[in-house]
Design goal:
The complex is a heterodimer of chains A (395) and B (265). Chain A has 16 helices and 14 strands. With 395 residues, chain A is an alpha/beta fold. In chain A, 62% of the residues are buried. Classes of the chains: A alpha/beta (395), B alpha/beta (265).
Chain lengths: 395, 265
């Protein structure tokens, strides 16, 4: 029998004993509330009235013409409050934390998008909020640090290890272990120990459910492809999950190929050299040395440079439910500019990876087909970094 | 079945003494000196040595052992060296040796291979802080088949129901985490874990060792009150990181003396 919290062989609860009571408490609370009509109603209320759901499934006419093949639709998660899909999960978990009687919320963040989403819901629900962020990222993402502070959160720079997302995650788990009674940890992606991957997926699966309904309405059938970028994998699992049993819908996750295969500087956990291993509480594909030491991931996009990946994606990869590919920094930068110019939409660098894959996919499609790309976030946050990458001085 | 560890714990108990476990990261301050540190620890009264296997992401560890892990990995410490380390200790001591390492390293090495290779080298058991009872079934079976100890854990939050489940089959010793948090010297009220230790006695005869936070002879005495042994890690490793081997020895001796004064019948 399948153990709870496992996706095939992947997932599990590889955490210190100290954390087990908190995970058990969280699992019990989640199981109690996930189908509770009042909880569902309140979650839907905030998604609609506060976050701005449903998001559009925009027919990208110009982009479609640009390729001259299948029709391209963009799932506009970038139009949500705080600018990315992260708010779906942050709202769901904060509502759950409130019901659990937790006064404090903590989160880890890489680029700062999940940190901002968490700080936002903490402000909304009047909860104390600490966000752990690698000191390297604090330096790289000053604007988001200030944003979180404006929202009343305390940003805690993490200097341990390599001072990036994976270390911020470890530090958040350590802090949680120390403050387990009054604190809820809002993990930002579909990663971590059970019940997080399931819970985060459930809070994000609205993306795919809306795509299904909107596709039905706009094209009268299911799309042929759904494409999303994969770092930890929350927008991708949210996009894919509702289509998991639809073999006719090809599900493609796009990872960060970074500086290219020759350099080894990438975040290709599923599409590259990753092997199953254990990090942050879950058994999943992982970038690591032959000795099982975790390797730092690299991407131009701070939201994708995580060496692990959500365990359900590992399961989808091994079972062939979804396919995982990669594009390089340069291909993503090109896609970033292409969508800005062609559609007047500046996409997040993360989402630009999904868009970049169209270069490879579109020539294989036909005009009768339909492709949906999840635009997980907007690109305002990336403008400075892109300017730098393009050798432009902003001052 | 008897092992170096069970024999040592039985001898301590027969003498009415509390055990002293000392944690040393392989490769801190470097390989040779970490080996020397084991010798110093044993000479100064350590009963059991925890051989720290460095991991890139030590989730259960505080700043000192994190820093030790980083330093060890920078020096290229790997599983092969860790195996050599155990063999090297065995050339000068029969002190019980228990590895403390994270699951990904052990998983990658191979569960059965880890147990058989390291046991052949002279290791008596393992503590894997990110492997709770729920996930340890496969490794537990392998360890049981090889008479190799795999530590179970109790914490201040462990309920009697959970103790019954986890402590029943425990061998060697049970790792009692003194407070909610990570490794590292700190102010800990050992009463809480003391009460949990007393409860645990209803479910197990296996010796109880309290760790996390112990940084002074006073703390060691307080931690030992309801337990059979105390575990000292960061307070020793902090000195090793600064290359203060003699100071580490003096510190261990002070713990030994305090424990024996307070509890020796």
């Amino acid at each position: 029998m399948q153990k709870p919290g496992r996706f095939g062989q992947f997932g599990g609860q590889y955490v210190p004993e100290i954390v087990m009571p908190a995970l058990n408490e969280l699992e019990a609370a989640y199981n109690k509330y996930k189908d509770d009509p009042d909880f569902r109603k309140e979650f839907r209320y905030y998604l609609r009235e506060y976050a701005g759901r449903p998001t559009g499934l925009y027919y990208a006419d110009k982009l479609t013409q640009h390729y001259g093949k299948a029709r391209i639709f963009l799932k506009r998660e970038d139009l949500l409050h705080t600018g990315a899909h992260k708010i779906n999960n942050a709202l769901g978990q904060a509502l759950l934390a409130k019901r659990m009687g937790k006064k404090k919320i903590i989160a880890e963040t890489g680029a700062g998008q999940h940190g901002v989403a968490t700080a936002t819901v903490a402000a909304l629900f009047g909860m104390e909020c600490h966000v752990f962020m690698g000191e390297v990222d604090v330096e790289r993402q000053k604007l988001n640090v200030f944003r979180m502070q404006l929202l009343g959160a305390k940003v805690i720079p993490v200097s341990s290890g390599t001072g990036t997302l994976k270390d911020a995650t470890s530090e958040a788990i350590r802090y949680w272990a120390t403050h387990i009674e009054d604190t809820h940890y809002i993990i930002g992606s579909a990663v971590g120990p059970h019940p997080y991957p399931t819970m985060v997926r459930d809070f994000q699966k609205v993306i795919g459910e809306e795509i299904r309904a909107q596709a039905e309405e706009k094209i009268g059938k299911l799309p042929d492809y759904v494409i999303a970028c994969v770092g930890g994998g929350s927008n991708a699992i949210g996009t894919f999950y509702d289509f998991r049993n639809d073999a006719s819908v090809k599900k493609i996750g796009v990872e960060a190929g970074g500086r290219g295969d020759a350099t080894g500087d990438n975040a290709k956990t599923l599409s590259g050299t990753g092997e199953p291993g254990i990090l942050h509480g879950a058994y999943s594909y992982l970038l690591q040395t032959p000795d099982g030491q975790v390797v730092e991931a690299y991407s131009i996009s701070a939201g994708l440079d995580y060496p692990g990946v959500g365990p359900e994606h590992s399961f989808f990869k091994d079972t062939g439910i979804a396919e995982y590919v990669s594009v390089t920094d340069q291909e993503a930068l090109d896609a970033f500019q292409r969508l800005s110019r062609i559609e007047g939409i500046i996409p997040a660098m993360e989402s630009s990876h999904a868009l970049a894959y169209l270069e490879k996919l579109m020539p294989q499609t036909t005009p009768e087909q339909n492709v949906v790309v999840t635009l997980s976030g907007r690109g305002d946050k990336d403008v400075q970094m892109v300017a730098k990458a393009l050798g432009k001085e902003l001052d | 079945m008897e092992t170096r560890l069970t024999k040592k714990m039985a001898a301590l108990q027969a003498a009415g003494r509390k055990g002293l476990f000392v944690y040393i990261t392989v490769g801190v301050p470097d390989y040779e000196r970490s080996l020397a540190a084991v010798k110093i620890a044993v000479e100064n009264g350590a009963d059991v040595i925890e051989v720290g296997l460095p991991f890139s992401d030590p989730m259960a560890d505080g700043p000192v052992i994190q820093a030790a892990s980083v330093q060890a990995l920078k020096q290229g410490v790997n599983m092969q060296q860790e195996l050599d380390f155990v063999r090297a200790v065995r050339r000068f001591s029969d002190v019980p040796l228990v590895a403390m390492g994270y699951m990904n390293n052990i998983y990658h090495y191979g569960l059965e291979k880890f147990v058989t290779d390291f046991q052949a080298a002279g290791l008596d058991g393992a503590i894997i802080p990110d492997l709770p009872h729920e996930e340890s079934g496969e490794l537990r079976d392998i360890c049981a088949a090889h008479n190799f100890h795999l530590a179970e854990f109790i914490t201040p939050g462990t309920t009697p129901a959970r103790m019954e489940q986890t402590c029943k089959g425990a061998t060697g010793f049970i790792y009692c985490v003194s407070h909610n948090g990570v490794t590292g010297v700190g102010k800990v009220d050992y009463k809480q874990i003391g009460e949990v230790c007393e409860q645990a006695r209803n479910y197990t005869q296996t010796p109880l060792a309290v760790g996390f936070g112990i940084g002074s002879p006073e703390a060691a005495v307080a931690a030992a009150e309801h337990a059979d042994a105390v575990i000292v890690g960061s307070a020793v490793v902090g000195r090793l990181l600064k290359d203060e081997l003699p100071e580490a020895g003096t510190f261990i001796a002070s713990l030994r003396q305090a424990l024996d004064q307070a509890y020796c019948r």
